[in-house]
Amino acid sequence: EIVLTQSPATLSLSPGERATLSCRASQSVGSYLAWYQQKPGQAPRLLIYDGSKRASGIPARFSGSGSETDFTLTISSLEPEDFAVYYCQQRAGRLTFGGGTKVEIK
Amino acid sequence: EVQLVQSKTEVKKPGESLKMSCSTSGYSFSSYWIAWVRQMPGKGLEWMGIIYPEDSDIKYSPSFEGQVTFSVDKSISTAYLQWSSLKASDTATYYCARHGHGPLFAALDYWGQGTLVTVSS
Lengths: 106, 121
Fold this sequence. Notes:
The complex is a heterodimer.
Chain A: E1 4-7, E2 10-13, E3 19-25, E4 33-38, E5 45-49, E6 53-54, E7 62-67, E8 70-75, E9 85-90, E10 96-97, E11 101-105
Chain B: E1 3-6, E2 10-12, E3 18-25, E4 34-39, E5 45-52, E6 57-60, E7 69-73, E8 78-83, E9 92-99, E10 108-111, E11 115-119
Parallel strand pairs in B: 2-11
Antiparallel strand pairs in B: 1-3, 3-8, 4-5, 4-9, 5-6, 7-8, 9-10, 9-11
């Protein structure tokens, strides 16, 4: 099973700041990596797929990069609605999710 | 508009059975894999497996094989997740989600709102 390790577990930032979230895979997943946002009491929402492609309706401040084993989700300037938990997910092998990064208000 | 609408919150006792639903609309149900995802209280997302409605091809996660059953009813574009004997450790929110096509194949592009299941004596 491919293990995804997300870091940091918690990121404390202020609105307007840049957020950089990391996802590392235990073996290569090519570009088969997606990112999701989840707010309390809501279902996850797809943000990024295929490593760097923004899903429909996702603002340009969200960007994804990386390949093989190292991936990054960047939020260029945090809006109040961006404070949430973010998960990465791969499907190169059996589908797995990372443990999540909580982006909280500092 | 693509929609996945899940059945309501359930409160059950250990040993009881449960069948929850994921009703879809706005796309060709038979042509997209449906995934089931568990989220235990305060925890992360766990993939339970997938089902392809056209031929009911199923792939269970080893962690859930033998514990749950996936099925579909193509006539009403609905997927199901069921247990024959619930345990307290099944307490969680369960999501259905659709796998996309093409470049989106590896991602879950639409999600149901989730069904909260509480199992307690």
